[in-house]
User: Which sequence fits this backbone?
């Protein structure tokens, strides 16, 4: 039997028997269902790639009021995480939004130990940005996605109240 005849006899098996069909039970992207994670190589171009990816995610989910500070945060945290990684290692970025809070986590492979002042001093601008948006930030030891340090920050979208 020729290869062509053999391939013609193959019958594709529909995936619906093994998993839910595409779109089953899922919701279209909108503010409030943003939850993404990315693994990126620790290299000089990573902050740009992270920024561009986050910009697309924010646009698709209609995250407008926190987009600019969120993108600034993504770039700053991934830049800093790459400084704590060696060639060939990865950093991990996660983006979450629930109600009026945007959360950015960046994981780097450097163990969290005794370098707290170095990390805090290197992220002074990040602290200022977060405070302007009524959020919080910090870093701690991470067990996922691999041993290292998780640096995180939140930004709140609080509508401005004008005096009457």
Assistant:
């Amino acid at each position: 039997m020729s290869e062509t005849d053999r391939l013609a006899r193959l019958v594709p098996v529909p995936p619906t028997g093994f998993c839910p069909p595409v779109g089953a039970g899922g919701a279209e992207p909108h503010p409030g269902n943003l939850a993404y994670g990315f693994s990126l190589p620790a290299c000089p171009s990573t902050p740009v790639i992270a920024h561009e990816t986050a910009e697309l995610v924010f646009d698709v989910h209609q995250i407008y009021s926190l987009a600019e500070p969120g993108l600034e945060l993504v770039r700053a945290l991934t830049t800093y995480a790459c400084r704590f990684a060696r060639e060939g290692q990865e950093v991990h970025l996660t983006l979450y939004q629930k109600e009026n809070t945007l959360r950015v986590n960046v994981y780097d492979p450097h163990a969290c130990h005794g370098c707290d002042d170095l990390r805090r001093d290197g992220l002074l601008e990040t602290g200022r940005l977060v405070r302007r948006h009524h959020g919080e930030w910090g870093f701690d030891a991470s067990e996922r996605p691999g041993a290292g340090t998780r640096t995180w920050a939140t930004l709140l979208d609080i509508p401005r109240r004008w005096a009457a």
In short: The two ends are 84 Å apart (CA to CA). Residues 67-83 form the longest helix (17 residues). The first strand starts at residue 34 and ends at 41.
